Description:
There is one protein chain. The chain is mainly alpha-helical. The chain is built from eleven helices and three strands; from the N terminus they run H-E-H-H-E-E-H-H-H-H-H-H-H-H. Helices cover 75% and strands 4% of the residues. It has a three-stranded antiparallel sheet. Strand 2 (60-63) and strand 3 form a beta hairpin. The longest helix is centred in the C-terminal third of the chain and has 28 residues, at 211-238. The radius of gyration is 19 Å and the shape is globular. 32% of the residues are buried. InterPro entries: GntR_C (IPR011711), TF_FadR/GntR_C (IPR008920), Tscrpt_reg_HTH_GntR (IPR000524), WH-like_DNA-bd_sf (IPR036388), WH_DNA-bd_sf (IPR036390). Residues 80-224 form the GntR C-terminal domain. It comes from Phaeobacter gallaeciensis. GO terms for molecular function: DNA binding; DNA-binding transcription factor activity.
Amino acid sequence: MDLPASSKSEMAYQFLLKQLIEAKIPPEAPLRIPALGKDSGLGVTPMREALRRLESERFVVMENNRGFRAAAVTQAELMDLEGCRLVIETALLREAIAHGDDVWEAGILSSHHLLAKAVEPAETSNLDDLRLWSDRHRGFHRALLVASRSQWLNLFYDQISNHLDRHFFSMFTGDNRSKFLGSPELISHSRAALGIAHHTKLMEAVLARDEDRAVRLLEEHAGFTRRFFDRVEDQSESSP
């Protein structure tokens, strides 16, 4: 039984989004519609529709006479995204603390447990481990906010998180991955920015309903992450 065109378009969108976020399609790589349609098994038309949607979300760009290309990853864009994420996540966290119940608290504890069990990026050279940590890290931050009530802020938060995940995988895969694992300084900064210790402090403040401390820790977490990716970028620029 053939799938409806709308279902194929959505499947094509999800297929491409995952490829782009996990940097399986590297930044600035050309996107050949016939090849993508064949690889996905979904055909040319759904793939073209998905690319148009992803262009509107700034994951891909359309260049005259060159077709579609994966959007570039830049340090300036990363800093902009981190700043936007902090504004939105802070507002959602305050809402969640105000409205969260016992089920919300249980979800935070469960997601923290799963994150603590995942191998941190600084401790692995296995890409599957990296994907698992990324999923659980995002799951933890999402669990903190699930009791918030603003649908639009949550939508914006998810969109920004997708872009930040793409930057994360771009930094930790391909040539950048070997540069990162070969730098004791970057590994040290990764442990500070992405390790479980700071996430535990954030969880404890949220569960204690200490809104000001939780927001302060969230701001510190974002600051750690920005400084870490600054160093990753500097390391990449200085490497031959």
